[in-house]
Amino acid sequence: MKGFDDFTEELNIDEFESVTDVNDLFAAFADPEPEPEEILEEVAPELDKTQKLPKNRKKIKKKKRRKKNYVLRFLIIVALIVGAVQFIRSDFFTVTKVAVDGNQYYTASQVFQLSGIQTGNNIFRTKTDEGKEALLADPYIKYVTIKKELPGTIHITVEERVEYATVPYGDQYVLIDDTGMVLRISNQEPALPLLEGMTIIDMTPGSPLNVEESYLLTDTLELLAVVAENDMYFKKVNFSTVVVKAYIYDSLYCEGTPANITASMESVARLVSELYAENVDKGIIRVGKDNYLSFDPNITE
Fold this sequence. Notes:
Elements: H1 4-10, H2 22-29, H3 36-50, H4 53-88, E1 97-101, H5 108-115, H6 128-136, E2 141-149, E3 153-160, E4 165-169, E5 172-176, E6 182-186, E7 194-196, E8 200-202, E9 210-211, H7 214-229, E10 236-238, E11 244-249, E12 251-256, H8 258-263, H9 265-277, E13 282-287, E14 293-296
Parallel strand pairs: 1-3, 7-10, 12-13
Antiparallel strand pairs: 2-3, 4-5, 5-6, 8-9, 10-11, 11-12, 13-14
Helix pairs in contact: 2-4
């Protein structure tokens, strides 16, 4: 079932641009009064058959009244349609406000500008589908809905992608979300987990980051989500080997596969808490299968 926005998108009020005077429509659709000769031609066969002129005259009058009633009803409907269209085209339905919510990275003004929607236009002429497409073309916009609220408000609701990690590329940094979608490329290192050692194939904003170590990237993004759930933070993850190094501090890190570290995260979090209580900020936490942990305070690198 079509909604209000679908109806207003399909309504083309330009079809009624030439309507300026209802009387013109009445004149255009009203049938002219039949001439006496036409009436006689219509009833002549009946007169020849019955020779009852008074009865045929009654039929003629009844036919004329019926015809006038049809025309009058039609003109009333046309008048109502024209009146409704003129009302829709009036300043009462001018867009005067654009409300935005759900935004964090972009300001409401920036979301409004990205949508391409303009105030001052008739709300029925405003193409919400075009505004939605324009917003979704931006890498930071994940979902968007645009609704018309009569008489003159456009309501934009967005869900944005969040900067989650960064991958160095020469002197630049590729910022990605939790799914690996490239959001933007920065010349300055952001305060995000740094994923080192990956070979980038493609880093186009708005597309998934394409790296040779794709399986490690996927597992590491899942690992970062589990780390956050346990109130921990890895400042850097190094992919120089199949076994990654996830740094808690500059000289304290976990060593193991992303899958093993993820599965043992609760135990890792407890061990890190104990080390922090003892003011230990240097060493290696080696993580194996089946929740195996070992701590080595000596770093040979």
